[in-house]
Amino acid sequence: QVQLVESGGGLVQAGGSLRLSCAVSGRTFSRSAVGWFRQAPGKERAFVAAIIWSGTATKYRDSVKGRFTISRDNATNTVYLQMDNLKTEDTAVYYCAAGPLWHPMSVINWKMYTSWGQGTQDTVSS
After folding, report:
1. SS (H, E, C) 27-60
2. Nearby residues of 55 by Cβ (< 8 Å), 6 or more positions away
């Protein structure tokens, strides 16, 4: 079983930056994925970014490419989501999740993930 704890959300103005952290504990595999998803009010949960646990591959949704960076710290088993040049449409509750073996099509599907963090609210004001 994998446990995930997110931190780092908050309120920021458009154009600003936030960094989310996801502390991962429990049993993990080098080829499994850790992903970030977000859910805005009244909308479906949406894929944001994912990284293979070994750190050798990443994937992003198109709307965040060039603005968001997912990374992993081996020493602390923490996955980060650096979010720069934030836009009002990035406002959502952000969740980190773990579970599926890495595949570019599987990692974008929230239903493939078996462990979830509690979520953190990120609000981008205009």
Report:
1. CCCCCEEEEEEEECCCCCCEEEEEEECCCCCEEE
2. 71, 72, 74
What's the angle, vertex CA 20, arms to CA 18 and CA 21, rounded to 5?
Answer: 150
pLDDT in tens, 5-63: 999 989 999 999 999 999 999 887 888 999 999 999 999 999 999 999 988 999 999 99
* Lowest pLDDT segment from 24-33, 94-103, 105-114: 24-33
Q: Which residue has the tokens 């704890």?
A: 5
* Model pLDDT for residues 49-96, shown as the tens digit of each residue: 999 998 899 999 999 999 999 999 988 999 999 999 999 999 999 999
Angle ∠(87,6,94) on CA atoms, nearest 5: 35
- Give the span between the Cα atoms of 9 and 86, in whole angstroms: 13
35 alpha carbon, distance to own chain's centre: 5
Nearest in space to 114 (alpha carbons), one of 34, 39, 41:
34
